[in-house]
Structure formats: structure tokens, C-alpha cells
Design brief:
Blueprint lengths: L8 H4 L13 H10 L3 E3 L2 H5 L6 E3 L5 E2 L1 E3 L1 H5 L2 H17 L7 E4 L5 H11 L3 E2 L1 E3 L5 E3 L8 E10 L3 H13 L3 E3 L2 E7 L5 E4 L3 E10 L4 E2 L5 H4 L4 E2 L5 H9 L3
Parallel strand pairs: 2-15, 5-6, 5-9, 9-10, 9-11, 11-13
Antiparallel strand pairs: 1-4, 2-3, 3-14, 7-8, 12-13
């Protein structure tokens, strides 16, 4: 049996997906994320010693002491397959019916949705984000009731998931959206996402890693002198914020 906790970057990138035959635990998942440079957490210990350490500004404008870059995890084909397989096992464990289509919420989960669809043996439907930041459902579906599974890379407050649900409901002739939200990471404290007029969706994470967020004007890290950085804005920004951990 392979010991993921002792693997370095090269070894992780060489894992054959079929060699993983069980659910990975939180420590193993976190080790993969951290080793590949996809996960960052604020260094409270360094800050306590007087070192100035930056923190993250999320796309919502809120500030946070943690950040997960799903793009880094989903780029290597083998790691993407491993993560998708972990999600599919959790999906099947819920005894949910097989969907007619899988939709990856853009942009972070577009390729993930295709991978999960392939593993489930079902088509992937396409959704994109337009210039105004709104989701647009693009796949033309048959005029009968369609069962859709939505998947996401990261869940914080469920904002993108709610938007995606409402867009599908608006665009598709007759649709049932399965009441689950499979994600790589649940970084908030939600157990479900409630969509007005539709219902509740159970969050189904590979890993649950709680991170604290604040409104920009109420951020305790800003008050301590830490600078907020948008981690996804540039490669340099991601390098700067992750380097603060060392």
C-alpha cells in the first residue's frame, strides 16, 4: 500500500490513479495539496513572532486566513483523476441516481465536471461565465425531464452554486438538479446550500478544511499590519503568499 504522507512532489505526480483504491483521509488529501503548492494557510506563529505575513483577499472581497488553488490540483492528469475518483466514490456512497448530465461550475470546476462525467459514464454539459461574471448554460438538451448533477471545486458560502442552479433552472426546459453539491474542499462551515425556490443541497466534500473569513473593514489580520493579496490575480501573487509560509 502506498504511503502518501511520505511522498514528495515527483512521487505524487507519478501516482497511477488506479493504485488508489480507498477513500483518502484528511491528512493525505492535505499533504497532496500542500506538497503540490495548491494550499496556503496564514502563519499565525510567524506573525506572533513579529514577522509581517500577508493574507488572502477572496474574489468576494472578503479577507481570509486560508486559500486553495484548485487549478494547481486539476492540471496534472493523474491528480485530477484521483480527486475526481474520490468525489465519485462519495457520490455513489450517497446512493444518488445516475444523472443524465454532469455540469462543472465555471471556471474552477469545468474540467473537473468532465472528469467526473467520464467516471460516471454520462455526458458533461457546458456552462460558461460571461464578461459580466454571470453563468450561461450552453448545452442544448432534449425536451424531456433531465437529471443534472452540479459539481464545484471549492465551497465557501455557496454563492456560485446558487447562481449555477438558478441559471440551469432558467435555461433548461424540464430539469431535476440532484440535491448534492460535490466539492474538492468545503472551506466554510456550511453543511448544505439552500437555494430559494429550489431547495437544499448537501455539501459532499473530499476534504473539509475550515478557514476564517472577514469583511474587508473588519479583518483582524489587516488590523495586525498584514497586507491582503489576491492570490489568483497573478502567478507572482501566489508565489508571494505561499512563500510566507516558510
Amino acid at each position: 500500500m502506498i504511503n502518501i504522507l511520505e511522498m514528495d512532489r515527483e512521487e505524487i505526480l507519478a501516482i497511477r490513479p488506479e493504485a488508489i483504491t480507498r477513500f483518502l483521509n484528511l491528512a493525505e488529501v492535505a499533504h497532496i495539496f500542500k506538497t503540490l503548492g495548491a494550499f496556503w494557510q496564514y502563519d499565525y506563529e510567524a506573525a506572533g513572532r513579529g514577522r509581517v505575513v500577508p493574507h488572502a483577499e477572496l474574489k468576494s472581497g472578503r479577507h481570509s486566513d486560508g486559500f486553495f488553488a484548485s487549478k494547481i490540483i486539476l492540471e496534472p492528469e493523474n491528480v485530477r483523476r484521483i480527486i475526481a475518483q474520490q468525489m465519485v466514490w462519495r457520490i455513489k456512497n450517497e446512493k444518488m441516481p445516475k444523472p443524465d448530465y454532469v455540469v462543472g461550475i465555471p471556471n474552477g470546476a469545468t474540467i473537473l465536471g468532465k472528469e467526473i462525467a467520464d467516471l460516471l459514464g454520462t455526458p458533461a454539459a457546458k456552462m460558461r461565465k460571461n464578461a459580466e461574471g454571470f453563468f450561461v448554460f450552453e448545452t442544448k438538451l432534449p425536451r424531456r425531464e433531465i437529471v443534472v448533477l452540479l459539481v464545484e471545486d471549492v465551497c465557501t458560502e455557496g454563492t456560485a452554486f446558487k447562481q449555477a442552479v438558478l441559471e440551469i433552472k432558467r435555461s433548461v426546459y424540464s430539469v431535476k438538479i440532484l440535491p448534492w453539491n460535490p466539492v474538492i474542499i468545503n472551506r466554510g462551515r456550511l453543511k448544505e446550500v439552500f437555494v430559494n425556490g429550489v431547495g437544499a443541497f448537501k455539501i459532499l466534500p473530499v476534504a473539509e478544511i475550515k478557514m476564517t473569513d472577514w469583511k474587508a473593514g473588519e479583518c483582524i489580520l489587516c488590523e495586525s499590519g498584514s497586507k491582503a493579496i489576491k492570490p489568483k490575480e497573478t502567478d507572482e501573487a501566489w508565489s508571494l503568499i505561499t512563500a510566507s509560509q516558510s
